[in-house]
Amino acid sequence: MLNAGELQQLREALPPFGDDAFPPAPLVAFCRAYHLDFSAHFPEAAYRGGYIDSGEHRLMLHRWLQPAARGNLFLVHGYFDHSGLFDKLVAYGLSRGYNVLIFDLPGHGLSSGEPAAIDDFGEYALAIEDALAAGGLPANLPLYAIGQSTGCAALTEYARRGSWPFAGVAYLAPLVRPAHWTLVRLGIFLMAPFTEGVARKFNRNTSDGAFLEFVRSDPLQASQVSLRWLVALKRWLGGLSRKELGVGPLLLVQGRQDSTVDWRYNVPFVLDLFAGSEVCYLPRAGHQLANESADIREVYYAALDQWFQRRSLR
């Protein structure tokens, strides 16, 4: 694990994403610390990392290109997450012969912005647009996407703005309403004038104990839930109509032990937005599906394989 000083050195050393130079030593150390160094398992995958500008933000991008790739996979992480916590999904994509692109949302990981804060979910949609535009994924290959939680909300906002270049999409534990939304809204009303955030609790949102220990010691984790983010979520939900978006179906993967989002409300809501979608329920899974235990991940990896294969035939 890198310390705060090493992470600051990394931020200062980050090259522009288009730079062809070998990654600087601090970025190589970051990839090793967060298990994003796939040179041993996928030696032919060429890595590039660096920053791009998106509105007022500077975003961190990571990309792996493989010779003879059969598709491109775009990953969008969740709230409090960052690219360094999505090593398992990156490895999934590489193992299936995909090129992989992932970026840190504004306010997360190595991207700029107040930790875990945003003023408008449109900034997430713009970040997706800019990451895809700058990512350099081969345009002749089908593009697939996987979002986790807030990453799904970001993709939904992106779809609302008329863009959907994906051959196939999967939502993991999508965010519409968080759990206990009525109480959360009351808390926003009562606390927003007096505080900038609420102390974060590290909940047991996965059955993978090693991941839970890792994330608790991760220096890139925010220490509080941002009130700005909650206000932006409330505003986004207020403008989100329960109408079909017209971009086609997706695969929705949902754990039945999820206590982070109101999944009983969210699942039918997402099905209304994306007509013809299918649901894969995981009886033992929590919210952090990208980092669930290996046996649970293998179940939904098989569902992803089938879904993307079916979408590629259309």
From TrEMBL:
Transmembrane segments: none annotated. Keywords: Hydrolase. InterPro entries: AB_hydrolase_fold, Hydrolase_4, MAG_DAG_Lipase. GO terms for molecular function: hydrolase activity. It comes from the Bacteria. Residues 69-293 form the Serine aminopeptidase S33 domain. Pfam families: Hydrolase_4. The keyword NAD does not apply. This is Alpha/beta hydrolase. It comes from Mangrovimicrobium sediminis.
